[in-house]
């Protein structure tokens, strides 16, 4: 895990942020987005509900964020985690079956289309933060989404907490396959 770094003002063009909501309140979440700066929250939770934090459920965020100046976009259907892996998965570096299954999902047309949309929006100047529930980015499928964005030439910065962020570096076990996919087999 990279160390947290103090916030530095980066150009939001060609930069995508990630954030894990964890147990944050809505106000803290919006403040962290402002530190990015990000004005669009891209929800990549496959199942965007929270019994412990109902204010972070999909419908609640879709209603609460726009009046606070944040656009809410749900992409959990195409970019969400909790996927079923393939028996013949080439992503042998991932010992965690959830990460291996997500790497398999990254090869699908649906994922590639959704990723291309994110890349195009970032390059057009949209200031986005990709959000999931897990606070720690390296324990979340956001780390694989971040790899895919970096492989496409974008900068990715993980928003960790007030005043703390970490730039993302491509996983050294990932290699491009020539067809626009990353294969996690270099060890």
Report the uncertain regions. Answer: 1-11
Cα gyration radius (Å)? 16 Å
Helix content: 25-40%
Q: Fill in the CATH topology.
A: Protein-Tyrosine Phosphatase, Chain A
In total, the number of domains comes to 1
Distance between the termini: 17 Å
Characterize the quaternary organization of these chains. single chain
Shape: globular
Can you walk me through this structure?
The N terminus is likely disordered. This protein has 187 residues and is α/β, with parallel strands linked by helices. The longest helix is centred in the middle third of the chain and has 15 residues. A hairpin with a 2-residue loop joins strand 6 and strand 7. Helix content is 29%, strand content 20%. The protein has 6 helices and 9 strands. 37% of the residues are buried. It has one domain: Protein-Tyrosine Phosphatase, Chain A (Alpha-Beta Complex). Strands 1-7-6-2-5-3-4 form a 7-stranded mixed sheet. Pfam families: DUF488. This is DNA repair protein. It comes from Sorangium cellulosum (Polyangium cellulosum). InterPro entries: DUF488, UCP024492.
Give the helices and strands, then pairings.
Blueprint: E1 5-6, E2 15-20, H1 26-35, E3 40-43, H2 58-64, E4 71-74, H3 76-79, H4 97-105, H5 109-123, E5 128-132, H6 142-151, E6 155-161, E7 164-167, E8 174-176, E9 182-184
Parallel strand pairs: 2-5, 2-6, 3-4, 3-5
Antiparallel strand pairs: 1-7, 6-7, 8-9
């Amino acid at each position: 895990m990279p160390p947290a770094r103090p916030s530095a003002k980066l150009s939001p063009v060609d930069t995508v942020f990630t954030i894990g909501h964890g147990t944050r309140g809505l106000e803290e979440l919006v403040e962290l987005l402002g530190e990015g700066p990000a004005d669009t929250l891209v929800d990549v939770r496959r199942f965007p509900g929270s019994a412990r934090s109902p204010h972070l459920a999909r419908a609640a965020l879709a209603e609460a964020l726009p009046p606070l100046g944040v656009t809410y976009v749900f992409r959990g259907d195409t970019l969400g985690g909790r996927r079923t892996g393939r028996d013949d998965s080439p992503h042998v570096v991932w010992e965690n079956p959830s990460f291996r299954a997500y790497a398999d999902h990254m090869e699908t047309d649906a994922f590639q289309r959704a990723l291309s949309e994110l890349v195009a929006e970032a390059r057009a100047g949209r200031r986005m933060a990709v959000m999931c529930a897990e606070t720690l980015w390296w324990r979340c499928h956001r780390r694989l989404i971040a790899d895919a964005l970096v492989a496409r030439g974008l900068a990715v910065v993980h928003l960790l907490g007030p005043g703390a962020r970490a730039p993302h570096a491509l996983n050294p076990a990932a290699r491009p396959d020539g067809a626009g996919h990353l294969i996690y087999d270099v060890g």
